[in-house]
Amino acid sequence: MNSPARLKPLRSVDEITGSRRLRRMRKADWSRRLVQESRLTVDDLIWPIFLVEGENRREEVAAMPGVFRLSADLAVREAERAAKLGIPALATFPNVDLSLRDRTGSEILNPDNLINRATRAIKAAVPEIGVITDAALDPFTSHGHDGILDNGIIINDETVEQVAAGAVLQAAAGSDIIAPSDMMDGRIGAIRDALDVAGFQDVAIMSYATKFASAFYGPYREAIGTKGLLQGDKKTYYIDHANTDEAVRETEQDIAEGADMIMVKPGLPYLDIIRRLKDEFQMPTFAYQVSGEYAMIEAAAANGWIDGEKAMMESLLAFKRAGCDGILTYFAPRVAELLKG
After folding, report:
1. Would you report the helix, strand and coil content of the chain in percent, each value rounded to 5?
2. Which residues, 6+ apart, have CB-to-CB distance to 294 below 8 Å?
3. Predicted TM-score (pTM) above 0.85
4. Binding site: residue ranges?
5. Beta-carbon neighbour count of residue 134 at 10 Å?
6. CATH fold of 39-340, please?
7. Binding site for Mg(2+): what residues are annotated?
8. Annotated catalytic, 234?
9. Residue 81: CB partners within 8 Å, gap ≥ 6?
10. Which of 211, 234, 278, 320 is catalytic?
């Protein structure tokens, strides 16, 4: 068979592009590095860890290979490892014993609860690492919701009062940043007031400004033990994942109430929200690469469908490209090791 005749183009490539050949700076590794627009460093990483009662206790989360629930003593060891790797901060999430959970989440008001004991232990051993704590009620409630449940309704104002009181106890235990994830109206202002009155003016607030009603939280709920407890859904307080203007209004309100930084959760499905918030508010902006995102990458890598290491790094760089100043990610220690080289 005769090969098709090659047609001479009407114009040369230089004529078509005006001699602007964009591949010039892609030709070598050194030139690609020279013009790279977004960079991921260890300074961008926040490592979420899960806590459990006991000593020398380490339980793998089935839906999150490589992620463990840790007793406070082992959490201290991991904090020491994180500090050596240069990771700036940890975010702690407790799996509270079922016997301590009730309708109102009253265990958050215990100064010696699991999250506060772990904070004290970590700050005593590794004072140079930041500790971020969540004042939401879901780890402490018997129904798995982020607020006080009354006749099937999450009561906003009573929840805010309890969340603010819990935040003060977390600050007293040594928390550097309070990051309330409950999405109750007025929580940021109430926490700021409570912290200031209690003398914790230097404790910052990272607002989960846009936490969406997402399908990507499943493995996390297994990790903190709320998966089988949740009654109904959280759509009366988390944001509809179809809405962007609402996300902007939520963020604007939290900033007005005193948030020092804002967060978007989940991460990769909401890169457009990250970019819009960064452009609108020029605030320190973070994203939470949530458990479902982590599990998808791990599962695909385990099946040989993707290169897990490359997908991990690409997904995190996407957050930086979208405008993030930092990322909460379960990959943090692995990434820090890679960046250390």
Report:
1. 45, 15, 40
2. 64, 67, 219, 329, 330, 331
3. yes
4. 250
5. 28
6. TIM Barrel (3.20.20)
7. 250
8. no
9. 333
10. 211
